[in-house]
Design goal:
By secondary structure, this protein is α/β, with parallel strands linked by helices. Helix content is 45%, strand content 16%. The chain contains 13 helices and eight strands. Strands 1, 2, 3, 4, 5, 6, 7 and 8 form an eight-stranded mixed β-sheet that branches. The protein is globular. The two termini are 40 Å apart.
Length: 330
Amino acid sequence: MNTDTIVKISVIIPVYNVEKYLSRCLDSVLGQSLREIEVICVDDCTPDGSAAIINSYVQRDSRVKAIHKAQNEGPMKARESGYDMACGEYLFFCDGDDLLPPDALSMLYNSAKESGADITVGNAEMVGESGKKVPRHRATRVGSDYRSYIRFILNWGTPALWGILFRRSLFEGVRYTAEKHMKLSEDRRLLTEILMLRQPTVHGLDRVVYWYWINPASSTRTKINEKAVIGQFKSLYGSYEFIEERSSEFTHCNDNQMIRYLSLYLEKGARPDLLKSIHPDIKRQLGYRHMANVCGTRFATHTFLCMHSAVYRYIASSARIIIRRLQGKE
C-alpha cells in the first residue's frame, strides 16, 4: 500500500496458538473489498508456527504489520499493543481463528461514515466444524448510545469486540484496563470501559460482518475448574464495579446480570463457598429473597436448587447442553 494512502481501518489480530487457522483468517482480511486497511498482527509469544506465518504475510503484503512480544501477556495486553500502534481512522478487532465476509469492512466503514457514529455494530454468525452457521443478531438491539448498549450487554447481549468498528479517537487520551493473562470476559471489560468513559454514539448495521469460528481449543470453551471460575468472576466483577462506581442508573440490570452468571456456574458445578469467597457482594446476591426480587421466584428457586441438590443440578446442566447442541452452539 502506498505510504500516502489514508488508512481507513486498522484490523488488530492477537495471535496465540492459531497456526491451524491464521492463514485463512489473514486471507479473509486481506481479501476485503475495502483495500485501504492495515492489519496489525500481535504475536503474543506464541509457541506454535504462527509467528512464521505472520512474517511471511509481512513480506508479501505491505499492509500487514507485525508486533512480536518478548513474553506472553494475554489478549488484553496484545490488543493494547495493537491499538497503540494503529493509525487507521477506525479500529476493528479480529481473532486469529475467525473469518470476515468479503465486504464486511466496506459495509461497516460506509455505514460509519453515513451515520457519523463512534461505534458501528454488525451481526455475526457462529460457524461450527461442520460449516453450519448460527446467526447472532445484535445490530437492531444495541440502540443509539452508550446507555442502550450497556443495557443490551447487561441483559445477556454479547459483549464481544468482534464485528464492531470503533472510531480510533475513542482510544486516544485514555488508558483502558489491560491486565496480563486475563483470558475470560476481557472483551466485556474493554467494551464496558469504552462505553462508560467515552459515552460514544452507536449505530447498528443489520448485516453479517463476522464469522466466529467455534474452536474447541479456545480459552472460552475450556471445562470448568477452580482457577477458571476465579478468573472469570474476578473479570466479571471488574466490569460490575466499574459500572457501579460511575452510575446508579444500571444497578438493577448490573445485579441481575451477575446473579444469572452465578446461577449458570452453580449449574455447571461451581462450589457455592468458592463463589462467595471471590467478591463481597456474592453472598448477598445469592440470597433467595434478593434473587427473587431481582430475577423472579422461578429463577431464584432454580438457582437455590442448583446450590443444594446435585441431582437437580445434573439434570438442569444436561438439559442446557442438549438445547445448545440443537441450536448449534456446542
